[in-house]
């Protein structure tokens, strides 16, 4: 089993739609969680960190469920510019190694 | 300020040749990471440097791969006797190395093609 698993998609949604991605992690000692965004042929960039209480940044909401070992990303009012691959990233306690999921591809359609 | 830079941006080489990839992290960042990303795949951890501590080399796929870092500055990733399966984008990232919740900043990557 992979340490971090994501549905590869693609998720094709119309503009204005709400879309949610989940990511599961296998190591219960995982301590830090992030969502990164990667555009085609570009480097990953941090979208948001995920905090235990959940957090929101504009149209983006991230949630953490430690009991079930998954994190989620909700995107409201999707824009064409949201089209990208969303990478789930987990860091385990006591280490500076980041474990990346393979990403979920989102395509927002006009 | 300047971000993470990598060179070359593209490299085409013949099977069996050695290649050297360079990464300049953000100034003051003590942590530096190398990743490999094959086409359509996720990021594969290769190696991690933190200050003057011994690097975490657990992700290097074979002894053909090695990396060095001079102090808290430039790092080079060397691939000896390249194989076609080494073709990928090699990404470097740096971070402050002070917090578990810190952000990694990535360079634009080096696209390596082994013919």
Description:
- The complex is a heterodimer of chains A (110) and B (115).
- Chain A has 110 residues and is mainly beta.
- Chain A has strands at 4-6, 11-14, 19-25, 30-38, 45-50, 55-57, 60-65, 70-75, 84-92, 98-100, 104-109.
- Chain A is built from no helices and eleven strands.
- In chain A, the strands form two sheets. In chain A, strands 2, 4, 5, 9, 10 and 11 form a six-stranded mixed β-sheet that branches.
- In chain A, strand 4 and strand 5 form a beta hairpin.
- Chain A is globular.
- With 115 residues, chain B is mainly beta.
- In chain B, strands 2, 4, 5, 8, 9 and 10 form a six-stranded mixed β-sheet that branches.
- Chain A binds chain B through residues 31-32, 34, 42-46, 49, 87, 91, 93, 96-103, and chain B through 31, 33, 35, 41-43, 45, 48, 50, 56, 58, 91, 95, 97, 100-101, 103-104, 106-109.
Task: Compile the SSE list and pairings.
The complex is a heterodimer of chains A (110) and B (115).
Chain A: E1 4-6, E2 11-14, E3 19-25, E4 30-38, E5 45-50, E6 55-57, E7 60-65, E8 70-75, E9 84-92, E10 98-100, E11 104-109
Chain B: E1 5-7, E2 10-13, E3 19-24, E4 31-37, E5 43-50, E6 65-69, E7 75-79, E8 88-95, E9 105-106, E10 110-114
Parallel strand pairs in B: 2-10
Antiparallel strand pairs in B: 1-3, 3-7, 4-5, 4-8, 6-7, 8-9, 8-10
Shape descriptor of chain A reads globular
The poorly predicted ranges of chain A are: none
How far apart are the first and last residues' alpha carbons of chain B, in Å?
37 Å
Give the oligomeric state of the chains in this entry, treating copies of one chain as homo and distinct chains as hetero: heterodimer
Instruction: Please bin the fraction of helical residues of chain A.
Output: under 10%
Using the CA coordinates, give the radius of gyration of chain B: 13 Å
Could you spell the SSE succession of chain B in H and E letters? Answer: EEEEEEEEEE
* Count of DSSP-assigned helices of chain A: 0
The total of beta strands of chain A comes to 11
What are the low-pLDDT stretches of chain B, counting only 5+ consecutive residues below 50?
A: none
Secondary structural class of chain A = mainly beta
How many beta-strand runs of chain B? 10
Q: Give the C-alpha Rg of chain A.
A: 13 Å
Protein chains sharing the most extensive interface: A-B, 20 and 22 residues
Mean pLDDT of chain B: 93
Integer average pLDDT of chain A: 92
Estimated structural class of chain B: mainly beta
The biggest sheet of chain A, with number of strands, parallel, antiparallel or mixed sense and barrel status, is:
6 strands, mixed
Strand content of chain B: over 45%
